[in-house]
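Same chain as my last thread, 270 residues:
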Amino acid sequence: MLKKETILKSFNEDDAKEAIKIYEKYKLAYEKDITVFTSSFYSPNIWSFFENCCSSNEVMFEANGLFEESERRMICFNNLYNVDYPIKILEIKNKSNFSNLKHKDYLGSILSLGIERNKLGDIIVKENKAYLPVLEEISDYIINNLSHIGKSPIEIKIIDNISDIPSVNFEEIVINVSSLRADSIVAKLSSLSRAKAIELIDSGKVLINYVKAKDKSQDIVKDTRVTIRGIGKFIIGDVIGGTRSGKQRIVIKKYIWCVEVILWSLLQWI
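reply #2:
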């Protein structure tokens, strides 16, 4: 069973407070053998920790943000019977023809209602609409109290069919690298020398699977998420062969952002 002491050693003071709350949910699910949901969405460094620590059969673990490749996710323990998550997806439509609302506009207006950030998931902004997972318990409050964003009138409705939500876009590229080491991969993705890539890693500007990279010699395997401050986020794909010079050819998916992931990423650098 996961120990409380392990959590305290694994996070900074602020994240440890949130992680302890999750631990209490985990403990309840373990002791009572029941399905338990958290009451917040969590950033990847937190939910991925529990994903790794709950890999045994003691407690079933899930983390879901409803969107494909969600960053902010709600955690559930022991969801043996596929109980629906207590989440609603809001579609917020900008009805003004004279304003172009951005992510910060949608988020700022919702937070101004007195709602905490951890009650909201990722935000996808597409054309004149924003899509936002929220805790089920606050969905009606937002619908009934948010009529404008700035001076722009809006219309809000609940989306029942997740297929109606636009997906995250990727650009697929192929890179040639001398090895699968972190410094080699980061150098190629950022178009920098290996020495500069090592500086990025050493200064904490590279996340590997949502955790700050510490080992420049770490091998990067398929499906690893690599985030580089100021550059972007990437998913490592298959090795599809080699070049005559002996380099390995790797398929990479680069995120094309319309999603609120940048805000989370920036927080991780602090």
